[in-house]
Amino acid sequence: MQNRAAKLTAIQKIEMMDTPMPSCGDNDVLIKIGHVGICGSDIHFFQDGCLGAKMVIFPMILGHEAGGEVIETVKSVKHLKTGDLVAIEPGVPCLSCEYCKGGRYNLCRSMIFYSAPPNDGLMSRYLAFPAHLCFKLPAGASTLEGALVEPFSVGIHSAVLGNVKFGKSVVILGSGCIGLMTIAACKMLGASRIIISDLYANRLNNALELGADEIVDASKTDPVEKILELTGGLGADVVIEAAGNSKTAYQTSCVVGNGGCIVLAGNVIGDVPFNFRNMTLKEAELKTVWRYRNTYPMAIEAMSKGKVDLKRLRVDLFDFEETQKGFERAMNEKQTVVKAVVKL
What we know:
Blueprint: E1 3-10, E2 13-19, E3 28-37, H1 40-48, E4 50-51, E5 54-55, E6 60-61, E7 65-73, E8 85-88, E9 91-92, H2 98-101, E10 112-113, E11 126-130, E12 134-136, H3 143-161, E13 169-173, H4 177-188, E14 193-198, H5 201-210, E15 214-217, H6 223-230, E16 236-241, H7 246-255, E17 256-264, H8 276-282, E18 285-288, H9 296-304, E19 316-319, H10 323-332, E20 340-343
Parallel strand pairs: 13-14, 13-16, 14-15, 16-17, 17-18, 19-20
Antiparallel strand pairs: 1-2, 1-6, 3-7, 3-11, 3-20, 4-5, 7-8, 8-12, 9-10
């Protein structure tokens, strides 16, 4: 077996390189990676060499949304066997700090998150990974769906923080991959009505396919006015910002209903002119999302019971040797490329 990785060697330049085969530690499994999604954070690192204060140290392997096949286990691993297809949770917490012990391991200060500098990502053919963070996929699921479990987990965490449940109305601002996955999560949790707003018709059409009840084309109408019209002036019980945009972040307080909850799931860089007076008058809550926690088992269960079909998300597939092309398309064609995925 020969390992090979896609390495970011300079801004907007990825080179395919042979790399050493990994070896399993005492609690690891060896995985042959099948698919890796290209995340918005990967695009920032590729395009600018940084995301906020996080600076790339070249060369660096990107990618943290991955599904693969177990090809080797060690004796201590009992829940997986050779041939199992798995989704990989890419953050390795310390498991001993107060946050980990309290169940909020996504806040672990010692977290090793793959593809967050200085840590390499998962875009290589073979990978040794902690077995407890590899989740067996349901029968019939592919490694492509395994790669989509990661963004689906962001959607689940956002919906759970917003207390989405039967009878609740939800507005989602942004129908990129995270917005679309949040629709699936809200449907899974029983939301009674989901309204989604975006600038692009193809994304809104995909939103309808994934279960949105109503769409708002923000390129043709004022989304705040339209959402308030659709809700009879009351706003929504839960508003989730999934675009990572300061303008949509501002809109959240305008369309949340009395006693409602705003969840900021998008990665908004820079200052936001937020209207806290709107929230005060409505006694609304504001919550923020940092990745996810305890969501992979929920995602796997939803898939196994048919509550969600991740295959309905439209993806653009690129062969491993075309990784550079995949990043360029994802960077330059955001209007048409909802989720770029590399097939290894």
